[in-house]
Each structure stands twice: as structure tokens, then as C-alpha cells.
Amino acid sequence: MKTKIFLFLIACFTAVSINVQAQSNKEKKSNKEEVTFDVSMTCQNCQKKIEKNIAFEKGVSDMNVDLPAKTVMIVYNPAKTNVGKLQEAIEKLGYTATVHNKVENAKK
């Protein structure tokens, strides 16, 4: 009987801790922002150069480079970086970058 009660308590504790951890992960994911830049890139080498370098900027969690539209969409953590720093990083690579749009609390 004691064993059954003990196992029941362990199962309850495990279920509660899993639920708390899942809620914590949701809060972390909602702390992302998204910005899209219009960038003066002209070829696939430009695209590769941006993908290679910007992906490793501090706070960047996802990005998409669209060569035909000449845009770069970046999902980032605002606690680690900001739009100005990301724009500066693109410009350091030799391209002009202007903010196309900015979305807070990106769902990625």
C-alpha cells in the first residue's frame, strides 16, 4: 500500500514539473521580435555572405534572405541585440540596409 502511494506521489510530482517546464518554454519563445530589412544585394554570393555572417550575430535565432525581393527577415532576442545593431552588422558587410518593417513578439 505504501508503495502505491509513493508511486502515485512521484507520478503527480513528475506531471506538475513537466507542466511548469512547458509553460516556461512558451514564455521564452514569446520573447522574440522580427525585423525585415531592404538590403542592396544583387547576387547569390551576396545572399550567402549575409546568411553566413548575420546568422551568428548575438541574439539572432532565425533569418530568411530573399534575393529576388532584396529583403532579409531576422528573428532576434531584444534582450541581446536590437534593430540598430543588426542594421550595422549588415552595413559592415558592405550593403545598405533600411528597415522594411518590425514585428514584436514573433512566433518562432
TrEMBL record:
Question: Which residues are the signal sequence here?
Answer: 1-22
Keyword terms, alphabetized: Metal-binding, Signal
- Indicate the segments forming the HMA domain, all copies: 32-98
Per the record, the coiled-coil ranges are: none
Q: Which molecular-function annotations from GO does this UniProt entry contain?
A: metal ion binding
| Protein name per the record | Copper chaperone CopZ
Q: Which organism is it from?
A: Dysgonomonas macrotermitis
Gene3D superfamilies assigned to the protein according to its UniProt record, in alphabetical order? 3.30.70.100
Q: Specify the superkingdom.
A: Bacteria
CDD domains in UniProt: HMA
